[in-house]
C-alpha cells in the first residue's frame, strides 16, 4: 500500500501551488468567493477548534494535546483541516495520507473517539461547536504525531497468506468462476488495509498477539474462493489461540470499517468453516 508521510520539506511544492490559489481567493488552496463576499456558488465558512494529539519522540517523553483555531468551509474534510494546520500554522505536524479519496487507507485516525478516514470525514458532519479531537489509532506503537507503526498489523496480514494458492501445472487460460461463487466472498475483497477495524478492537488493544479483524477478513477472501486450494492451511493458522476464537463479537470492527464490510459476519463464517471441518 502506498503511503505519503508529510514533512516540511515534502510539502514545499504543495504549499507553492496552494499559494497561487490563495492569490485568487484569499484562502489557501481555495478558489472562488469567501465569507463576506457575494456571488453564486459561495461556500459557507465556519470556525473550528482542532485538538490534536502530538508526540515527537526526539522532544517529548509523553504525547500531549495542542489546539488550533481554523476557518474552514462546508466542503472541507478533516484531512483539509490537517493540511491547513501543517501548511499555515505548524509545519512539524506529521501524518500519513496518499490518495485523499478513501481508497488507499493511509489516513485512518481516531476522530472524536471513532476510527475514521480523515479524507472521508466532512467537518460539517461533526459537532463543530466543540473541539474536533484527532489522535492516532489505538493498539499500535506511535512513531510521531498521528503516525503509528503498521508493521504488527501487516505481519498478521502476511501470516494468513493473502494470495491465491493453487496446485498443479500453470493454467493455459484464466481460471473461470461463476458469478455466484464470486459473490460468496465479494464483501471481503473491499478491504483497503487501513487498520481501522483492527485498531478498534478491544481484544487487539489488550493482546498484541491477536491476528485482528483485518487479517481474518483477508483470509476469508481466499478461504471461500473456489479457485483457491490453500483454505485448510489458512484455517489451521486461524484456529490458533490468537486466531478467530479470540473475537468477542463486539461489532466495533464492522462499525469502524470505512468500506462497509460486514467484518463480524466474516469472522463468524470463518469460525463456522472451522467447526464444519472438524465435524
UniProtKB/TrEMBL annotation:
EC id: 1.3.5.1
One Gene Ontology MF term: 3 iron, 4 sulfur cluster binding
Ranges of residues in domain 2Fe-2S ferredoxin-type: 46-140
Necessary cofactors: [4Fe-4S] cluster; [3Fe-4S] cluster; [2Fe-2S] cluster
Low complexity bias: start-end ranges: 14-25
Pathway: Carbohydrate metabolism; tricarboxylic acid cycle
Single Gene Ontology BP annotation: tricarboxylic acid cycle
Broad class of enzyme this protein falls into: oxidoreductase
Top-rank taxon: Bacteria
Keyword set, alphabetical order: 2Fe-2S, 3Fe-4S, 4Fe-4S, Iron, Iron-sulfur, Metal-binding, Oxidoreductase, Tricarboxylic acid cycle
Region called Disordered, residue ranges: 1-43
InterPro entries: 2Fe-2S_ferredoxin-like_sf, 2Fe-2S_ferredoxin-type, 4Fe4S_Fe-S-bd, 4Fe4S_Fe_S_CS, Beta-grasp_dom_sf, Helical_ferredxn, SDH/FRD_Iron-Sulfur, Succ_DH/fum_Rdtase_Fe-S
Family: Belongs to the succinate dehydrogenase/fumarate reductase iron-sulfur protein family.
The protein's name: Succinate dehydrogenase iron-sulfur subunit
